[in-house]
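Subject: for your reference before the review

Hello V.,

The reviewers asked for a structural picture of the protein, and I figured it would be easier to keep everything in one thread rather than splitting it across files. Below is the amino acid sequence we used in the manuscript, unchanged from the supplementary table.
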Amino acid sequence: MARTVSHPVFARIYPRINAFAEAHGSLEHRRELLAGARGRVVEIGAGSGANFRHYPAAVEQVTAVEPEPRLRALAEDATPDAAVPVKVIPGRAEELPVEDSSADVAVMSLVLCTIADVPAALAEAARVLKATGELRFYEHVRSPHPGFFRRQRILAPAWQLFGGGCRLMRDTERAITDAGFVITGIRRFDFLINGRANPASPSIIGTARRPPMDGSGGRTEKLGRCVTCRRSSPGSSRRSNPSSSPRARMPPSCRPWRNTPCRSTAHSTSRIPYRSTGCHARTCACNAAWRRVRRRASSTSRRAFPASACPWSPWPPRTRLPL
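And here is what came back from the structure prediction:
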């Protein structure tokens, strides 16, 4: 069963916030976001269902995923106003209850700012999209202007506390491209209300193509998981052969670092195809742990801790990076 996300205070005031924003221009932003959508759509973080009435007739079915129970109830009440069939289901962006390659369009509207694990959410969006599918996004983002960004940074803690977990300083455009999506169109603007900017004014609206498949025609690995510790990660789209892969010989001492996301650009921010040569990220959990061991021992004898003999790694010594 999908875990719920509860923000009772924010869920009660959000309909008023949304109505105020729509009266000052966000209505046109939603129409721009959904113009030209077609086929089967997955809306991630549907909120109160503000997008439902803007879907064009070319859309066959909308599956709206919303984890917050109060907002989900409002979204269900909004389904009769939609011109297309809408199904509202519980679920989190990091674990979408949707089948692989089942959607033509994935919609993210003012939701990536509230998600704790953005790379995982984008990986799930890529998973449910078809090979020709597209991601449509409308998000407020961090300001490119240093002065305005300082204001966002000062207000960020209180904004997150009272805004349902909303982060003001998310660089959403970079997160989307780092996840392997290819942005095909984007508009950057400041959403001004009565001519005045607010901390969430810097915004983007755009579309992006889903990440390509690997060279063999198979699906790529899910994003955000260390390739070295991939064997135990849940929901993986490809599994290694236990009899032929060195990952099958993973020692128990590696377990504390299992499922730990790599922080390198190569692994945490792109859909990496399966490679039998191992993890080459300097910031892989096993490499990081081994570097700490070597640093502690450096004052006595570095020869006792060779760089090619990481005890937490199931990979042959030749695949380890020099530390």
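For the response letter, the relevant points are probably these. Confidence is low (pLDDT under 50) at residues 215-286, 298-323. Helices lie at 8-34, 69-78, 118-128, 146-162, 172-178, 265-268, 285-297.

Happy to draft the paragraph if you're swamped.

O.
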